[in-house]
Structure formats: C-alpha cells, structure tokens
Amino acid sequence: MIEETAVQMLYVLSAILFIFGLKMLGNAKQARQGNMLSALGMLIAIVSALVSHDVLEWQWIALGMIAGALVGAMAARLVAMTAMPEMVALFNGFGGAASLLVAWSEYHRYTTTGEFMDVSVLSLLIVIVTILIGGATFTGSIVAWGKLSEKLPSKPIQYPGQQFVNLLLVALLVGAAILFAPLRETVNIDSYTLVIATIILACLLGISFVIPIGGGDMPVVISLLNSFSGMAACAAGFVITNNVLIVAGALVGSSGIILTNIMCKSMNRKLSNVLFSGFGSGKSQSGG
Amino acid sequence: MGMMLVFVLILASFLGFELISKVPAQLHTPLMSGSNAISGITVVGAILSLAGTFVAGGEGVRIVLGTLAVFFATINVVGGYMVTDRMLSMFGSKEDSQ
C-alpha cells in the first residue's frame, strides 16, 4: 500500500499519457506510438489501483484479469482483418458492462452496510445513470457486432410504433430513477427491484436503439457507442469517486462525439439522420 | 470534493472536444478503436470495487460482480489495445511498401 498522494500523481501521469495518446492517434505518422503511450498510461493506472489499497480479494482480481487478458488477446489476434470493426464493437460492449457491474457492486455495498438511506440523492442518481449508460452500451454494441458480422440481419429492422416503444422505455427508466432516489423514503418499493428493472430496461433500450439502424451505418453507431462507454466509465468514476475514471471517461466521451461527427460528415450524413431514419442499408441513401 | 470532480469532468470534456480535429479518413477506425481501449479504464473501478472494502470473510455477491467487472474490462483493455496496434501496423506497412 502506497500513499494516497503518490497514487493521485500516478493517475495524473496516466491521464497525461491518454491525452498524448489520443492526440497522436489522429496523426498517421504517430498513431502507433500514440496507442503505445496510451497503453502505458493504462498500465500505470492499473498498477496504481492495485497498490493503492490493502487488497483483500487479490485472487479474484487476478482471476478476472488473467481470464480477461487471455480472452482479449486471443480475440484481437485471431480476428480477421476485415472483422476488426465488429470486434471493436464487442470490446466496447464489455467495457459498458463492466461499468454497469461496478455501479451495481457499489449499490450492493450500500444495501449490505445499511447506508442506502443515508446516501445522497445525487449519488444514487449517478448509480442509476451509470447502470443505464453501461447497460445500453452493452446491448447496443452486441447488436452492432451482430449486424456487422451478419449474425443478425444487417437491414434496418423497423416495426410500427418503434418511436413509441423507445419513449416508453425512457419514461419507465426515468420513473424507476425517481422511485429509486428522491422518493425512496416515501414509496414502499424494494430498491433492489428497481435496480434490476433499470438494468433490464437499459439493456432493452440499447437493443431497440440500434436495431432500426442499417448495417452500413454501423461504424458511426459504434463510434457513438464508444463515446457512451466513455461516459459510462466517467459516471462509474463519480460512483466510486475516482479521478482517473472521470478524466479518461470524459476524454473518450467527448472526443468520441467529435469523431462520430467527423465520420458522419465524411459520409455526407447528419447524425440524426443516421440514428432515426432507418436508412443506411447502403443503397437507400438517396432520400437522406 | 464533489465540486472538484465536476470541475475535472468539465475540463476533461472540453479537452476531449479540442483534441480531435482533422483526422484523415483511414485513421477513423483505429482512432475509434484506440479510444475504446481507453474507455476500458473502468478496469480501475472494477479493481477498486474488490480492493479493501470487504469485512473479514468477504461478501459473495460483490465478489462475483467485481470479478466479472474486472474480467469484462480487461477484455476491453487488452483486446482494444492489441486490435488497434494490429490495425495500425498494417497501415504502417502499407505506407512503407508504397
């Protein structure tokens, strides 16, 4: 266990490396070194986290990290060159799922220590927001992966009342969040039911958000989901009050929005058009 | 403490907006992939969710959630950086051969 100040300094160092890494990734000559710098930043952040507390459950951390590293490395090595974008979508979905699980675990801690009623409304809302963004990113990315790899039909899937279903999901999510945080003392609903409902609704929202979009537009959607997974990490940073998650998540979240916009422009499309028109099967763009 | 974190969030968001300006089209996918790897930073949150917060004897549900979170986030980190490097390496060799 090392001192808190030292840990914070190391987090700052890794944030700086992420910034340089992102900057260099936008430049053809420096992109590969940029990625290396960013990976070094990640290594520093992980090592700092490992030494920052008296780790009691090290065997579980080791198990998760070794298994995850093996799966990630195999997937990255074995994937065909042409299948890389959908692999990125899948990785991105796992990142979203991890943020969801971090928030869930923190909520579970509130309930077991009995501090649930003492936690501020804002903190509880952040838990719900993290679960929402993380869950929607997870399933949205899985659908994007399915569409690109043609495990799902890459045509836009549309049905009557689609917008209504999306609005209904959002309304239910807002309702669950209100019952969960500000009204928790007045309404007699088990908070765990609300958390599970939020997880399910968020996952449904991710699916219903991406299925009406055609396979040809998936790169833009993956870029947007990538931005969301950054925001999920950022929100998880607020849940556990950790600087490096907030900084790195915000960097990915905002730079992801800019990149999504650039990608839309290079296709001569508007983002709203990509997301809500149901076009983008590659052939039907004349009306867009 | 809370206000400080919001301050950090806003500054980092603006930095992210400014960081990406003109990106050549062939770098769109590697940039997306590289920044996706950075979003795996949630692995730090996952590690911390398992570190130092348990009373003696541990706590089953949180161990399961935390271990799964570490697992998923590590896939994101390791896979993300490696696949980005692979993309960029093809890109580099193509440039050299021309």
From TrEMBL, chain B:
One Pfam family here: PNTB_4TM
InterPro entries, per database record: NADP_transhyd_a_C
Domain of life where this protein originates: Bacteria
Membrane association type: Multi-pass membrane protein
Domain NAD(P) transhydrogenase alpha subunit C-terminal: residue ranges: 6-91
Keywords, comma-separated and alphabetical: Cell inner membrane, Cell membrane, Membrane, NAD, NADP, Translocase, Transmembrane, Transmembrane helix
Transmembrane segments: 37-56, 63-83
Name of the top EC class for this enzyme: translocase
GO cellular component: plasma membrane
Record-listed E.C. numbers: 7.1.1.1
Primary location: membrane
Localization per Swiss-Prot or TrEMBL: Cell inner membrane
Keyword Lyase: no
GO MF, one annotated term: proton-translocating NAD(P)+ transhydrogenase activity
ATP-binding recorded as keyword: no
GO BP terms in the entry: NADPH regeneration
Its job: The transhydrogenation between NADH and NADP is coupled to respiration and ATP hydrolysis and functions as a proton pump across the membrane.
PANTHER family xref list: NAD(P) TRANSHYDROGENASE, PROTON-TRANSLOCATING NAD(P)(+) TRANSHYDROGENASE
Protein name: proton-translocating NAD(P)(+) transhydrogenase
Organism: Pelagirhabdus alkalitolerans
